[in-house]
Amino acid sequence: MYWNIETTGQTTGGGSLPASNGLTTAQMSDSNSFAGYDFISANGVWTIPANGTHPVASADDTVIRRHLSVIPSIEANTNNA
Fold first, then answer.
1. Can you give the residue range of the structural domain that contains 30?
2. Which residues touch 6 (CB under 8 Å, ≥6 apart)?
3. Pair 20, 12: CB distance under 8 Å
4. Phi then psi for 8, rounded to 5 degrees?
5. Between the chain's N and C termini, which has fewer beta carbons within 10 Å?
6. What local confidence, expressed as pLDDT, does residue 74 receive?
7. If you write DSSP's letter for every residue of 7-46 in order, what string do you get?
8. DSSP structural state of residue 23
9. How many CB atoms lie within 10 A of CB 2?
10. Is the pLDDT of residue 71 over 90?
11. C-alpha to C-alpha distance for 25 and 3, rounded to whole angstroms
12. Would you call 28 exposed, middle or buried from its count of C-beta atoms within 10 A (0-12, 13-18, 19+)?
């Protein structure tokens, strides 16, 4: 989880969130700031639109559907626990 320290005023992380996850507006606009986010591959879920200020879900709904298809199995495993 990342947050914008300039727009939120929150400069430190809470709980187990490291303070390094708090980013400036410029950093939030740079895909290199987001460790583990997939912006590049064919399966990439994230994008930062031109003039965007933060990552958003890819507009390619086939990619999103492919990633969301695992949710029912996760919910089933949680409900059967």
1. 3-79
2. 24, 25
3. no
4. -95, -25
5. C
6. 45
7. HH---S--TT--GGGEE-HHHHT-GGGSTT---SSTT--E
8. E
9. 18
10. no
11. 9
12. buried
Phi, psi of 71 (to 5 degrees): -60, -45
In 1-81, the DSSP E strands lie at 3-4, 22-23, 46-47, 56-57
* Domain total of the chain: 1
Give just the sign of the alpha carbon dihedral 59, 63, 64, 65. Answer: positive
CA distances from 28 to 33, 68, 69 (A): 7, 24, 28
Task: Look up residue 75 and give its amino acid.
Answer: E
Give the C-alpha separation, 44 to 49, whole Å.
Answer: 14
> ∠ CA 37-59-53 to the nearest 5 degrees?
60
What CA–CA distance (Å, rounded) separates 26 from 2?
13
pLDDT in tens, 26-60: 999 998 998 888 887 767 788 888 888 888 887 66
